[in-house]
Design goal:
The chain has 1065 residues and is mostly helical. It contains 62 helices and no strands. Among the domains are: 67 residues, Serine Threonine Protein Phosphatase 5, Tetratricopeptide repeat; 83 residues, Serine Threonine Protein Phosphatase 5, Tetratricopeptide repeat (Alpha Horseshoe). α28 runs parallel beside α30 and α38 runs parallel beside α40. The longest helix is centred in the first third of the chain and has 17 residues.
């Protein structure tokens, strides 16, 4: 059947008709007849045949298929779908049934349903290029351009001679902005079918859009050769011809010629007006529409176009009337409702505009642009949710409408739904047909979210799509500034100024970028240029202040910040940097006041709390500083700088345990930094954690062995551990690396002293005192070193110098007094001892020393008084009691001396010196028995003691036991041959016992040493007389009388006579 020619088809038709006359219920004959009619493109007649075939055989599936195909060919798409549905339900593997039902859906604009059926046709083996062409068209209609490309390319692979496939491919490439490739595809279509007017028309349009007017004109001429009646093409052709000649009058002549040729009708004047509208000759267009209305005043479309021309001319009232007239004639004229909406918008009657657009959507809910316009007007009204709903309705109809996506994003942004807005802009921007606007909006939204990196990327993408408006340029520059892309900011600002001229904001951002690059002079210049253009540009004034801070022009910076504060008293950052400038000027009280004011405005500023803590710390207001740094850490708990500062403040407050806890909170790697380790080690040292402190210092010295501070801390740790030699060695290292550091030298001297290296101490301290002679503490320490070496004279000199420099130092006064005493300068020591005792009256040692000094000065009463104070403080000190008793004896207070001596003997019965003193006291009191007992007890302890022996002699002498006394005195003289008192007692005993020659010899020895001894001269004279040596006796008597005589001689003579009488018996 497919190969039959026309005359053969005619004969076949008549043969089948003849057969039907014979057998009118033969379904197959009805089917064959319909098939012949379909081949002759008599589809309506064929439909009747196929229906009869099905009437007599409802199971004739071929008739079912052909019925559906013929219905498709005559445009009965709705009727064909149920027929084809019955077919595929019963024979699902029939690819033609699926293909034609898909084609019907396609004709009804049901693209998704069409695609589903076409895919089924392909799945069941449809291999015609046609199915892929239809599939490609469906994809185009729903915006799936890549899928459309794939479909058309597959169709071309199946049938490379199908011009329709190339045409569809070109159409899809246009959507991909691949216009050159589209032209190539159309050329291939026209090569296959040179009489393909749609292909010529499309390629002409592409040439025209690309500015290739000659080729466009040539292509339009081909269209007109094939379809000379196509007025639209003639209009376009005429316009292009005129554009080549740049003669608008020629265009009008051509248009008038067209009107003349085509008769003066409403349609021609309406089209004439539309063409003039396209040329933006709105006055002339209005005249054409007026003429059209004269010819046909009841034409709704012309009234609409008339209103559009008036709208373009901004004659809004008249435009509104024209649109309303259009609606009177045709209330369902959607374009007229749109026109009313546009006019109402221009007149700021947004509610009326919204009502008009809403009415238009009711009339034509599938027109995308109306929904977009409704969304725009709802946005103007602030009804952002309604606007979003309208845009989403538009996107349901056209998911790839970049305008709807863009406008939806704007509405969402106004609702503060920035993430959703970004997604919407991204949808819009990803489409090939999108312009720079979507990426600009994406960038602005990212900017409002603070996502400045994304802002920059989006603006740079926008630049590739088209020019950027001035205000958007500034947002781009701000985003670059926030991203600290300073080099890009500078280039961008320079380009901006080149394009748009000097601008305050651009100059300001240029200054900020230069500031960040530390080009402070250039930045200062641009901030000042900004202020010349905009004197109220507070930000520029603020940044000028920041730049002046970096240039160390603090007073000028303060002036800037004060101006900012005047303009904006609540600008806490201006107050903060004002305080920072004052801090740099060391005006700490003012800085503290200003910073507190900044914090009163905003107490969440970490930098302000931190700086306030530093200011208060420098003023030694450590408690306040600790509170301030605590507030800073509340805001940024893990900030290392704040933790270090807090630890330092705690250490200054003496809260070393707290400082240790703070240092422990510092994490690595900062915990291993030198500053942290050093501070931590110091805090550990002050809390007595010497091992840990030493470990950290050792660690620091391993990498910084020439740091004197570390050696000093090591020395302090060792000193605290009592390891003075190690401490001294560490200080020697410290002084090696800081030889001019007086403090270190001083500490070295002190530690050497503590290490008992006194000569080295003196040597080091001499170096310091050479350059610092007014250092009283060091003079005192040097004196202590001399004192330790028992160089009391030198020690006294050092203490004297120290006392002139150090006022009210009791320890110094004490040391000075002690050294004066020990150097034998008792008289000088006594005032110092008194000075000390005025301040420290309960020092028993000093009272004792004072007593000794007074005793040595012969001031026995004063000595006993001083020693009595010492005894009161140390009543159990035996030696002290003894000295006290001795001073009492020397001052003649014998009875008072007895109790302390007895107390000594009670504590120490074997104390010979105490027995000696007691003997002396008893002798002085004339209590011979008690004296003898005391001497005896003393001699028992020290039998050969000359003093005790002498006392025993005296006792024997007083008891007239002269012979025993003589034997004992000779023992004394053997032990103490120079004892004058013993010789005198010996002489008296010889005289008493009448051994006159021996007495004379002894008296000569005595008188040789003491010529003024009258008693001795008398005894000598008496002995010489008894020996008969009268002349010598006379001389001795004369000498005795010249010296005043001897008042006690009578008592001596009486005792002698009594002895001699007793002996002669």
């Amino acid at each position: 059947m497919a190969f039959l020619k026309k005359d053969q088809l005619d004969r076949a038709y008549y043969a089948f008709k003849e057969g039907l006359r014979v057998d009118p219920e033969n379904s197959d004959l009805w089917f064959q007849t319909g098939l012949v009619l379909a081949k002759q493109e008599r589809h309506r007649d064929a439909i009747k045949m196929f229906k009869n075939a099905l009437k007599y055989n409802p199971d004739n599936l071929n008739a079912e298929l052909r019925l559906g195909m013929s219905m498709h060919e005559v445009g009965m798409y709705k009727e064909a779908i149920p027929v084809l549905t019955r077919l595929v339900d019963r024979e699902s593997e029939n690819p033609l049934g699926w293909m034609y039902r898909g084609a019907c859906y396609l004709a009804l604009n049901k693209y998704r349903e069409a695609l589903s059926d076409l895919n089924m046709a392909i799945d069941w083996g449809a291999d015609q290029a046609e199915v892929w062409v239809l599939k490609g068209y469906s994809h185009v209609q729903i915006g799936e351009f890549q899928d459309a490309l794939d479909a058309y390319n597959f169709a071309i692979e199946i049938n490379p001679d199908d011009p329709v496939a190339f045409y569809g491919l070109a159409n899809t490439l246009i959507h991909h902005e691949e216009r050159e490739l589209a032209i190539d595809a159309l050329k291939k279509a026209l090569k296959i079918d040179p009489e393909y007017p749609d292909a010529w028309r499309m390629i002409a349009d592409l040439y025209a859009d690309s500015g290739d007017i000659p080729h466009a004109i040539g292509s339009y001429e081909q269209v007109l050769k094939i379809e000379p009646w196509d007025l639209d093409t003639r209009y376009t052709y005429s316009i292009l011809k005129a554009e080549i000649s740049d003669d608008k009058s020629t265009v009008l002549d051509i248009l008038n010629q067209i009107v003349t040729e085509g008769q003066e009708t409403v349609t021609f004047y309406n089209n004439h007006g539309l063409t003039l509208m396209h040329l933006k000759k709105y006055d002339s267009a209005l005249q054409a529409f007026n003429r059209a209305l004269q010819l046909g005043p009841d034409n709704s479309s012309v009234w609409h176009n008339h209103g559009a021309a008036l709208y373009k001319l901004r004659w809004y009232k008249d435009s509104m009337k024209s649109f309303q007239q259009s609606l009177k004639l045709n209330p369902k004229n959607v374009n007229a409702w749109i026109g009313i909406g546009m006019v109402a918008t221009a007149q700021y009657e947004f509610s009326r505009a919204a009502a008009a657009y809403t009415h238009a959507t009711d009339l034509n809910p599938r027109k995308v642009n109306i929904w977009i316009m409704l969304g725009d007007i709802q946005t103007e009204r602030g009804l952002y949710k309604d606007a979003v709903a309208a845009y989403e309705k538009a996107l349901e109809l056209d998911p790839e409408n970049n305008v709807a996506w863009n406008q939806r994003g704007l509405a969402l942004r106004l609702m503060d739904s920035h993430p959703a807005a970004l997604e919407s802009f991204e949808h819009a921007a990803e489409m090939k047909s999108s312009r720079s606007e979507s990426w600009i909006n994406h960038a602005i939204t990212s900017f409002e979210l603070g996502e400045y990196d994304k802002t920059v990327v989006s603006f740079e993408r926008a630049c590739k799509r088209g020019p950027i408006p001035v205000d958007s340029w500034l947002i781009y520059l701000n985003a670059l500034a926030y991203e600290h892309e300073s080099t890009k900011v500078i280039k961008g600002c320079e380009r901006f100024i080149e394009l748009f001229g000097p601008d305050a904001e651009a100059l300001f951002l240029l200054g900020v970028a230069q500031y960040e690059l530390k080009q402070y002079e250039a930045a200062l210049h641009h901030f000042r240029e900004t202020l010349k253009l905009d004197i109220d540009h507070t930000d520029s004034l603020f940044w000028e202040g920041l730049t002046l801070l970096e240039l160390f022009q603090f007073n000028e910076a303060i002036a800037c910040f004060e101006r900012v504060e005047d303009n904006n008293p609540d600008d806490y950052m201006a107050w903060f940097y004002h305080g920072k400038a004052l801090f740099s000027l060391k005006e700490l009280q003012k800085a503290e006041f200003i910073l507190k004011h900044s914090l009163a405005i905003n107490d969440q500023s970490y930098d302000a709390w931190y700086l306030l803590a530093e200011v208060q710390s420098l003023q030694k207001s450590y408690s306040d500083a600790l509170q301030s740094i605590g507030r800073a850490l509340d805001l940024v708990p893990s900030d290392i700088g704040a933790l270090i500062t807090k630890a330092g403040i705690q250490a200054s407050l003496g809260s070393f345990k707290g400082a240790c806890q703070t240092y422990a909170a510092i994490s690595e790697p900062h915990a291993s930094e030198g500053k942290v380790l050093y501070g931590y080690a110091k805090a550990l040292y002050h809390t007595g954690q010497f091992h840990d402190a030493f470990s950290k210092v050792t660690r620091l010295l391993s990498s910084d062995e020439k740091n004197p501070e570390l050696w000093e801390l090591k020395a302090k740790i060792k000193r605290a551990q009592g390891q003075f030699e190690e401490a001294a060695a560490a200080l020697a290292e410290a002084c090696k690396y800081a030889p001019q550091n007086k403090k270190l030298l001083s500490l070295q001297g002190i530690v050497l002293y503590e290490a008992e290296k006194y000569p080295e101490t003196i040597e080091v301290l001499d170096k310091v005192l050479t350059t610092d002679p007014q250092n009283g503490e060091l003079w005192k320490r040097k004196g202590a070193a001399h004192e330790a070496l028992m160089q009391y004279d030198l020690a006294s000199e050092c203490y004297e110098k120290a006392s002139g420099l150090l006022q009210e130092d009791p320890d110094l006064i004490r040391r000075l007094a002690v050294c004066l005493y020990r150097s034998g300068k008792c008289a000088l020591s006594i005032p110092r001892l008194d000075q000390y005792l005025e301040v420290v009256p309960d020092d028993s040692e000093i009272w004792e020393m004072k007593g000794r000094a007074l005793f040595n000065q012969g001031q026995f009463s004063s000595a006993s008084a001083a020693l009595s104070q010492a005894v009161l403080l140390k009543p159990e000190d035996v030696n002290l009691l003894f000295r006290y008793a001795k001073s009492l004896v020397n001052s003649g207070e014998f009875l008072t001396a007895i109790p302390p001596v007895d107390h000594v003997l009670e504590k120490d019965p074997d104390n010979a010196e105490a027995w000696k003193l007691k003997a002396e006291i008893e002798q002085s009191l004339g209590r011979d028995q008690e004296a003898a007992h005391a001497v005896k007890e003393a001699l028992r302890q020290i039998p050969n003691d000359p003093g005790l022996l002498l006392s025993r002699v005296k006792t024997l002498y007083d008891s007239d036991t002269y012979d025993e006394a003589l034997d004992l005195i000779r023992r004394v003289l053997d032990k103490s041959p120079e004892n004058l008192e013993a010789w005198l007692l010996y002489a008296e005993l010889l005289w008493m016992t009448a051994d006159h020659n021996a007495a004379v010899a002894a008296l000569d020895r005595i008188l040789a040493q003491d010529e003024s001894n009258a008693h001795g001269w008398y005894l000598k004279a008496d002995s010489l007389q008894n020996e008969g040596r009268f002349e010598e006796a006379a001389v001795a008597h004369e000498r005795a009388f010249s010296l005043g005589g001897d008042p006690a001689i009578g008592l001596f003579l009486s005792r002698k006579m009594r002895y001699l009488q007793h002996k002669n018996r």
